[in-house]
Amino acid sequence: MKAKKIIRLSATPEGFGQTPDKLAPDMFISELPTQHTHEYFQDEELGLYVGVWDTTDMIETAGPYPCDEFMWLLEGEAAIRNCKTGEMETVIAGEPFVIPKGYNCQWHQVGYLRKFFLISVNPNEPMPEMPAFEGIIIPRAEAQMVPLLTAEPFLTEKDSPIPQHHVCYKDSTGKFLAGTWESNAFESTAAPFPYHGFACVITGSLTLIDEEGVKHSYGPGETLFVPEGLMCSAKATEKVRIFFAILRPGQTEGD
């Protein structure tokens, strides 16, 4: 596991594309594609991986998806086939989406694709008998929000605005969630970040301040990852809305 820090994700990290991934023929029913992976963060004990990935044309072998995965498409278009119904769902560049662990599907890729990803594949948790959802899930920027019960992840002083969110996906364990979050202008107190969090700013801007006082600012289209337990504070000078995916390792279903 890499040292904990606020991570700004880049679609073109240094060296990306120079060393192809090693691929097994049984992963595909097509010819082997060319793929590259750059990991910004990994925790093998949790089975948590965050990074950028690309691929050329391919058709993956059909079967239950091995992990919960949140993706933000940077280039290209993805087509995911439901193996039970034959329905094909398509996601285009600029959209986020989730493939649930255990969803019986098949990735059909035509043309080049690049994405950011957050993968949750805890080695100690079995494949669910049924996926939490039979299909892909696409978070929406204009989703109907509901107030959060607490101000997490950014703890604020009394009378600060109450953030709102819309959870479009929760896995079968209750630990992995994805959706949309927003808040009016705020300034939080410093506190340990309560979970592993991936975010892409939709509108507005967000500034995180780490324990050394360094400011990390993000605007529309920019993407970040904050590991659990990192001491930081945050502020926004205007309404901010983000897509998010989080992993709450200590949570259990129903929390």
Give structural attributes.
globular; seven-stranded antiparallel β-sheet; mainly beta; 255 residues; Jelly Rolls
Count of individual domains: 2
CATH architecture of the largest domain: Sandwich
Q: What does the average pLDDT come to?
A: 94
Class from helix and strand fractions: mainly beta
Give the distance, in angstroms, between the N- and C-terminal Cα atoms.
27 Å
The geometry reads as globular
- Strand % is over 45%
Low-confidence stretches: none
> What is the overall number of helices?
0
What is the H/E order? Answer: EEEEEEEEEEEEEEEEEEEEEE
Fold-level CATH name of the largest domain: Jelly Rolls
The CATH class of the largest domain is Mainly Beta
- How many beta-strand runs? 22
Question: Can you identify the CATH superfamily of the largest domain?
Answer: Jelly Rolls
Rg calc: 18 Å
* Main sheet strand line-up: 1-20-17-22-14-13-12
Largest sheet: 7 strands, antiparallel
Percent helix range: under 10%
